[in-house]
From TrEMBL:
Gene3D superfamilies found in the cross-reference section: NAD(P)-binding Rossmann-like Domain
InterPro entries: NAD(P)-bd_dom_sf, Sc_DH/Rdtase_CS, SDR_fam
UniProt KW keywords: Oxidoreductase
One Pfam family here: adh_short
Transmembrane segments annotated in the record for this chain: none
Keyword Oxidoreductase on entry: yes
Protein name from the UniProt record: Short-chain dehydrogenase/reductase SDR
GO molecular function, one term: oxidoreductase activity
Family: Belongs to the short-chain dehydrogenases/reductases (SDR) family.
Length: 232
């Protein structure tokens, strides 16, 4: 990704702590990272050098609002790569799950993906180059009980990404999705304990797969849903 301009959503989150340094190491010229929580920005900066921080533009934004997404992307010099990490899960039995929470899950996991892909793709088509990498879930293809909203919304992410890949055939734009199992992040350790954490996917390991799909070398891979399951 040397010299590329990257939109990296979720770059300050738990997975972002592994992906952002990896993207910087790949030689990205400029990275735009939208954020919601300023504390997460400081946590990321704490593991980066001043030179690395200088290559990042942090933008406070709500990625579920189209005007906000469009504004961020229009302000970028160009969008060579979109890496979309934003997402989250909540648990509950289907017959007890509220419609309000269902809509929140879909906004977080699927609506944000649609909006950043839509406007990044517009810029990529203008420049005739692009790499789109989204994050689905093992649950998207192997749904589990009490995770219906999460699995359904992540299945939507997979379908959306594959549709974009089909739309961009014959161009130098690709779209692929990774399917992690449980990712070893601070929030997952807090929610699930650490008993099986050694079997979970490390953020740094998933970052390497993401960076490959976002690179020039992955030009012949499109519409792939890549399982990254660790030892779970």
């Amino acid at each position: 990704m040397k010299g590329k301009h990257i939109l990296l959503t979720g770059g300050t989150g738990g997975l972002g702590l592994g992906v952002t340094p990896a993207v910087l190491a790949q030689g990205a010229a400029a990275i735009t990272i939208p954020y919601y929580n300023p504390k997460e920005v400081e946590r990321l900066k704490a593991i980066l050098s001043p030179a690395e921080i200088a290559r990042i533009k942090f933008v406070c934004a709500n990625l579920a609002e189209e005007a906000s997404v469009e504004n961020i992307i229009n302000q970028m010099q160009r969008v060579d790569v979109l890496i979309h990490l934003v997402g989250g899960f909540a648990m509950g039995k289907t017959h007890e799950y509220s419609l309000e929470n269902w809509k929140k899950d879909f906004d977080l996991n699927l609506t944000t993906t649609f909006l950043v892909c839509k406007h990044s793709l517009r810029r990529m088509l203008e420049n005739r180059y692009g790499r789109i990498v989204t994050v689905g879930s093992r649950g998207a293809v192997e749904p589990s009980g009490q995770l219906a909203a999460y699995c359904a919304s992540k299945a939507g992410v997979v379908a959306l990404t594959k549709a974009i890949a089909d739309e961009t055939k014959g161009t130098n734009i690709t779209a692929n999705v990774v399917l992690p199992s449980v990712i070893d992040t601070p929030s997952n350790r807090e929610a699930m304990g650490v008993e099986n954490a050694d079997k979970w996917v490390k953020a740094e390991s998933l970052a390497q797969v993401i960076c490959f799909l976002a690179s020039e070398a992955a030009k012949d891979i499109r519409g792939a849903a890549v399982p990254v399951y660790g030892s779970v």
